[in-house]
Amino acid sequence: MKLMTNSRFRFVRTNEPYLLPHLTIHCPGILCIYSKSSYLEKSFIKKPVTAGWFSLIQPGKESLLVIWIFLCVILISQMYLALKLKPPKVRPLAALSAIDDGLGRAVELGKPVHYTVGIRSLQNVGTIAALGLLRYVAEKCAKLGARLITTASFTEIIPVIQEIYQTASDISARPQVLKSEDIRFLSSEQYAYAAGVLGILTREHVATNLIFGEHAGSCMILAEGGFIAGCYQVGCPSGNPDALQFTSAMGISMDYFLIGEEYFAVAIAAEGEPESLGTLRGQDVLTVSAMILICIGVALETLGVNWFTKLFGGL
Amino acid sequence: MLLILDAFVRDPLVQLTAKTLTTWVVIMTAVTVGVGLVSASNTHVSRVRRRSSGWYNSVVLLITMFIVFLVGITLGTNYVVYRFIFDNVLVTSSAVVYGLLGFFVLSATYRAFSVRNREAIAMFLTTIITTLGTLIIGQYLGIGPLSSWFFDVLSLGPNRGLLLTVFVGGFAFMLRLLIGRERRWIGTEIVAEDQT
Asked: How far apart are CA A161 and CA A150, in angstroms?
């Protein structure tokens, strides 16, 4: 190790990784330039980095990283246990039955089903969950012979929906039911999209309206518009805080309403694989863990102990 | 994984890679606009050809779509014609549909009140208190603090609980995507089914 100093900078050359508290660790042999400061003490430089990788973590994100790892460990372990040992028993999900009822109604009436994947792009997990559920709905529609109209507000989703239609058609008894002209891009602007959906619900005499994916204020227009059009409706506003304020009003308009994580649970359970049931159990474990943490936090804060709250202050 | 690492790690290489990947996403998203244009054109051209009911609306849509598209591409989004269409057609139309939202919420709430059970009474009373609390007359009647308590305690707590469960559900789904257990939406798993 060689130390050089001038008036502005100190130059350090190392052959081993060393921890410098105000910056970061660095690879052996790399010349690093640090601003002149009192940090560069011999005692620090002599200390080889064994636990120094911790300094790579962004300041204030430590507790979030620990929680992130905890969530991953719980979910993956539950999936593994369900796959290798015994899959957990999950009660029949009423939402899936409600979707089946809606599709049956559409077949009986000879009218189409409308499915919305939300107003967000593919980067949103709610949209991807809606697309997973669309696969289930498309397969059922192709099997039962119900026409399925799917609307999207982002162009990048259209090829994915086309692929889902193609896959569902390939494995169904009635491949001609799912037509590419029933995949419709309306608008990326939420109220223009809502107006477009209202038009479809009334013009095409839709029997069942399935509202999934992430929505904002326009979810209420879709739900109440569907009610006025006489549709059987199943859906949820997903996790968007803008849409959550309409939860109660939307619940009135829907025939079956999914709340909170139920939407993701249905999207996962539609697959019916053992490890997907394990994921559901993992979700329950995490929810209970969060409740316990909240109770501990509230109790400690009430008693005047605030280190626990500060621990999660970076979240 | 790189994007997740970028959220936690302050390594320049990871940050640069994550930034590059994000740029790629933006470029790919821009390319897919063409797919949307083709999809919308296909749907509405076939409607016009078949003379389906309301086909003239499709003609208006196609003409407007291509005018805006061509003006935006050739003259830029700050050009006066483009701005005129955007400000006077899109913004005002959106405001009209947004205005409908109030009526839809009102009609849904009215139906809830017309149901004669305890929950409907509780909802009705809550609505009266919170509505009066935001009005001047409510301040005179001393309902303001009660209304605030409804918003800050009774409403906020359950909403946060709801958001928490949504986060847990969303995280579980995201993890399944990350480890490749959620592939139905990309249509890769075709299972032969008995078609008899």
From this structure: 8
Judged by CB atoms closer than 8 Å, whether chains meet at B108 and A220 is answered as yes
pLDDT > 80? residue A33:
no
Q: Which two tokens stand for residue B119?
A: 């929950």
- Smallest Cα–Cα separation from A218: which of A236, A235, A193? A193
The tokens describing B24, both together, are: 């790629």
Q: Give how far Cα A172 sits from Cα of A109, B124, B155, Å.
A: 21, 49, 46
A259 and A244 Cβ atoms separated by less than 8 Å: no
pLDDT value for A111: 93
The angle, 0 to 180 degrees and rounded to 10, between the axes of the packed helices B118-134 and B91-114 is: 130
- Give phi and psi for A2, each to the nearest 5: -125, 135
Residue of chain A whose alpha carbon sits nearest to that of B115:
A252
What is the per-residue pLDDT across A185-208, written as a single tens digit (0 to 9) for each?
888 888 888 888 998 999 889 999
What is the predicted pLDDT for the residue at A275? 79
Nearest to B193 by CA among A170, A177, A164, A165: A170
Q: Which residue has the higher pLDDT, A141 or B8?
A: A141
Q: Please say whether the beta carbons of A226 and A203 come within 8 A.
A: no
Q: Choose among B25, B163, B36, B176: nearest CA to A129.
A: B176
Query: What one-character-per-residue DSSP string does A23-70 give?
Result: S----TT--EEEE--TT--HHHHTSB-SSGGGGGBPTT-HHHHHHHHH
Distances A113 to A38, A148, A166, B43 between C-alpha atoms, Å? 70, 5, 17, 17
Cβ atoms A229, A202 nearer than 8 A:
yes
Whether pTM exceeds 0.90: no
Q: Which domains does chain A have, with CATH numbers?
A: 2-56 (no CATH), 62-86+275-311 (no CATH), 94-271 (3.40.50)
Interface of A with B in 63-82 (CB under 8 A): 64-65, 68, 71-72, 75-76, 79
Summarised one tens digit per residue, pLDDT across range A211-246 is 988 888 788 888 888 999 999 999 887 666 666 777
B59 shares contact with chain A (CB less than 8 Å): no
ipTM: 0.72
Residues A210, A218: Cα–Cα separation, whole Å: 14
Q: Which residue of B has its CA nearest to A57?
A: B9
